[in-house]
Design brief:
Blueprint: H1 5-21, E1 31-32, E2 37-38, H2 40-45, H3 51-59, H4 63-75, H5 78-92, H6 99-118, H7 121-127, H8 134-152, H9 159-175, H10 181-197, H11 204-214, H12 222-237, H13 241-248
Antiparallel strand pairs: 1-2
Length: 256
């Protein structure tokens, strides 16, 4: 019997609205069945037993998506983290069930992470008086974007080239670390974001996003970075919305 993934995805929307209404969405805890309180993936899966894997199997969406949603939830402000569960579930509900959509989504998110890191490039260039690392980090982030765009167009690329370049950039930043700590710390995290963007694994997208946020020059700006990345992910998930709404309009409903 074929699984109705569209129905399952809409069940997650119902759960998200219920937990939001009951004010049981919290940070720092997967899921407590005795209180029904939990984080993004905990409230959607309503279990603390491998929630990312269970959600992946329930919706036929890749596990990396739920790992990423989890990290975004924890990185947002408390108010935004509660709204994130609804926004994420509603965007997920209208995604198609095919591998190409998710393959392209991962590349689009690679570009989003690189762009978010590059918001700091003027800061790096100004502080890198000895020209030890800034341009190298910028170059590797541009390389991530270039390779992601090539894969989106159907071209086969060798991500090991990006991996090697990111390692080199990280090494350059580390060499300058003690002389320009605050700036190189930001650039070091950007290089690590580029490195993880080049890896192919279920957790690579979440780690890339985590380091992209940590590359913000000011700690207070990190929640803003997660906010931007959350909005980028929603746009990525909704990019085929008009066509997909036609498919789901007959059963698109949320129980109040």
């Amino acid at each position: 019997m074929k699984t109705n993934y569209r129905f399952n995805k809409q069940e997650l929307v119902r759960r998200a609205h219920k937990h939001y209404s009951d004010d049981t969405i919290v940070q720092g805890e997967y899921y407590d069945s005795s209180t029904s309180k939990g984080c993004c993936v905990g409230c959607l899966a309503e279990t603390s037993d491998e929630p990312h894997k269970q959600l992946s199997e329930f919706t036929n969406a890749p596990e990396w998506l739920f790992l990423l949603a989890d990290d975004i939830h924890e990185g947002l402000s408390l108010v935004d983290s509660k709204e994130w569960v609804i926004n994420f579930s509603e965007a997920l509900a209208i995604t198609p069930d095919n591998n190409k959509f998710w393959f392209d989504s991962e590349n689009l998110f690679r570009i989003a992470c690189a762009d978010d890191c590059l918001r700091n490039k003027a800061f790096w260039l100004e502080a890198d008086i000895k020209k030890e690392y800034a341009q190298e980090v910028i170059t590797v982030l541009d390389l991530v974007k270039d390779y992601a765009r090539k894969e989106l167009s159907g071209e086969v690329v060798d991500w090991e080239i990006v991996t090697s370049s990111a390692r080199s950039a990280y090494s350059s930043v580390w060499s300058a670390y003690w002389s320009v700590w605050s700036t190189s710390e930001s650039a070091r995290f950007a290089a690590r974001s580029a490195y993880w963007s080049s890896r192919s694994a279920v957790w690579s997208s979440r780690i890339s996003a985590r380091f992209a946020a940590r590359s913000s020059a000011r700690f207070a700006a990190r929640s803003d970075s997660f906010k931007r990345l959350s909005e980028e992910l929603i746009n990525i998930l909704r990019r085929e919305e008009e066509q997909l709404l036609e498919l789901v309009k007959d059963d698109w409903s949320v129980e109040e």
